[in-house]
Design goal:
mainly alpha, Rhopdopsin 7-helix transmembrane proteins, 3 domains, about 5% strand
Length: about 675
Amino acid sequence: MNTKFDVMNGQESNFTQSNTSWTDAYGAATTEAYERPFDDATVLISAILIFTMLAVGVILNSVTTAVIVKYEKLRNFFVYFIFSLCLSDLLSALISPLFWYRRTLGFDDWSAPEFFCKLFWAADWMTSIATALHIVGFGVFRLMAISHPHVFARISNRIGIVCIITFWMISLSCGFVPFFIWFGSAVRDRTSNSPISRWPSCTIDMEWYEHYKQYQLIALSLFVLVPLLSIIIISVVTCVKVYATTHSAISNGSLRRKRKEKQALLQLTLIVVSFLFGYVPFLGYTPAANTSIADMAPFERPFDDTTVLVTAILIFTMLVVGVILNSVTMAVILKYKKLRNLFVYFIFSLCLSDLLSALISPLNWHRRTFGFDHFVIPDFFCKLFWGGDFMTSIATAMHIAAFGVFRLISIADPHLFAKFSNRLGILSVIIIWTISLVCGFVPYFMWFGARERDRDSSSPDARWPACTINMEWYENYTKFQKIAYPIFLLVPFALIVTISVMTCLKVYATTHSAISRRSVREKRKEKQALLQLTLIVVSFLFGYVPFIAYEYWSVQSHDHSQYTRRVDYYFGYIEYIILRFSECMNPVFYNLGSTKMRWHTRHFLRGLFGKFVRVRTTTKSSFVSLDSESKRKNSAANARFVSQAQQPPAVCESSSSSDPNQAP
């Protein structure tokens, strides 16, 4: 259903043209005669696929709705949601021939009544909103039914029906109505430079285009992205809850209830997987850029003096904070040998990576502000920034993935982990840095450089900062990105999320199991280890999700308008600031997640600043003994106690002398 945003960013396709100027992937001017972007074989194959799925979808959804209508005993809270989802899918199936006709026989001339064009767009977007909202609601109530069955028992079926009606009202008012008004069919002028000349005849009417763009920014996030993220979070939480319940010996639930919970989880999982399977490609669909450059505006810097000042405050503040916190953490690890273990070596290396990122951050600030047009400092520093930046990104991703793997092994199989020496951790760290140096620093140091860009040309680097990739290496860079990003960023990213979920499941099942042989102290250590891993992973995701999103967005073809230049500039700057902030917070998370690290950091700071830093002393289980002042006070208190104990109590003497026969 990737028809909803065919007109995203002001264009639908870059295939069609009619003797008009447009830009290719490199921004070069090209002229081609208009040609339809499909042939007769495409029409035939797509017809077979669309009409086959139409028949299957109508039959299956109709049978399911008929079963629910016929058998009253089948109906419950969740079945009402399923009935409504079937209705949404049935509507989508019924309008699918209109999509096929729009993309094939009606591409140039929509001979059917315009009403059907409006109906397709409106119903298509309405069912998309309805489906997303329904699955989020289904997941929320399913989680409630598993986590708090007594609370869910008080929720009547009427509440479910009210929720469904509310979802359809939102979908109708926010989906069907605006799209029915904005879209229509007309013969498009294929010889003009207007974006509409490249679209099918059934598409948005240009007089509503500005309204559509503003609506799109809000609706896409509110009705698609937010539900998508909510569905993923709810599904993970539900899996954790069901896993912990079914593997806990102290659970009060019967076997029948546990079996029902597993069945409910299976149903939720299948629905969510089906939703993600359909909507992730839909969200990932990125139409080509606006191909017209006839009215390209004169070059203008995409930032002002206020931006320079604000970013300087942010970047240099985080530079100071990052250098101080990472340096202190590394110094603590170097000073206290008893603190070192396999995981601490990884933390030390992560601090080194974050420290390098902090030290080169002023180069990025200069590159995006005063050096945007003229990178006045030597070209070496431009190359150093790009090489160091990508090297530390690769290193961080692989460090956290390896950290998570070792942490999972230590919790799942502590006897196996006990056989791992610290040398294995050091060797892993060295291998990771070697890979990062060879596959990150070296190619970027070669490919990037500083030079004045021709702002009047149609080349992509005409809008980029002076310090960026040299265009003679652009082909190598794009090929490298398609290989390196999945291997060094996306795969570690997926591995980190998977390992974190598995670790959570294992720790939760262990700490809630009555038959576990592990002591309370071991369970507490596992919880502490899970906290440390969680903080590190959350910080990584917070910093690198925007980074990955921008990297992929930046290499796509985009128009040369001032709006796009500003989006590119601020998108890149904001994701970099978020990344730097997460790197500044990492040392804080290392200390929050480890009692030993926290105590030794306090002791180290006390040695630097004396009385200004208080160190909490503990009992026999402390890592070090009390300081000299505490020992002196304890010695004085013990002496007083001994002297008092040696004196006979006056009350006892008095009572014994008055009645010698009284029992002691």
